[in-house]
Amino acid sequence: MTQQNKQNSSSPTTVEADKTNKSDKAEVTPLKCLLSSVFSGVMALGVYRLMTAIIETYSTKPVISDNIFVLKLTVAVRTLVIGIAALGTGVFGFVALGLFLLGIQITFKDISKKFSNQ
Predict the structure, then answer these.
(1) From the CB of residue 47, how many other CB atoms can be counted at a distance below 10 Å?
(2) CA nearest to 110, candidates 31, 54, 50, 30
(3) Helix orientation angle between 30-60 and 68-117, rounded to the nearest 10 degrees
(4) How far is CA 50 from the centre of its chain?
(5) Can you say how many angstroms the Cα of residue 24 is from the centroid of all Cα atoms in its chain?
(6) How far apart, in whole angstroms, are the C-alpha atoms of residue 72 and residue 84?
């Protein structure tokens, strides 16, 4: 088979695959955005509370050691754990905000389409 015949024979299957992929995609609605935003916000709040509990636990239990290596390693691990929790809080918070704003944008687009069609 020549290169052109190979391309022609694969083209219809690619077009059909694209059509099925487009029909399988779920439509983004304001309600889905709002519910996803609430879920992400709850996750952010949960991770934030976990972070504050970790901070409180670390502050009430100091490390008692004379070895400088142990002290430096403890500080590094505690900083890493708190940093990961803070990163999770920030990511979930920004996702919640973004989904909420996307829901508002979709709502305004739907309203403007209804008014422009009338």
Answers:
(1) 20
(2) 30
(3) 160
(4) 18
(5) 22
(6) 18
Give the model's pLDDT for residue 81.
Answer: 96
Q: Where are the alpha helices (DSSP H) in the chain?
A: 3-24, 30-60, 68-117
Tell me the C-alpha distance between 59 and 17, whole Å.
57
Using 50, 70 and 90 to split pLDDT, how confident is the model at 19? low
Tens of pLDDT, residues 75-95: 999 999 999 999 999 999 999
95: its two tokens: 């996702």
Encoded amino acid at 31, one letter: L
Residue 85 near residue 51 (C-beta atoms within 8 A) = yes
Tokens 């305004």 map to which residue?
108
Q: How far is CA 102 from the centre of its chain?
A: 13
Q: What's the chain's length in residues?
A: 118
Angle formed at CA 95 by CA 91 and CA 97, multiple of 5 degrees: 120
d(CA 52, CA 46): 10
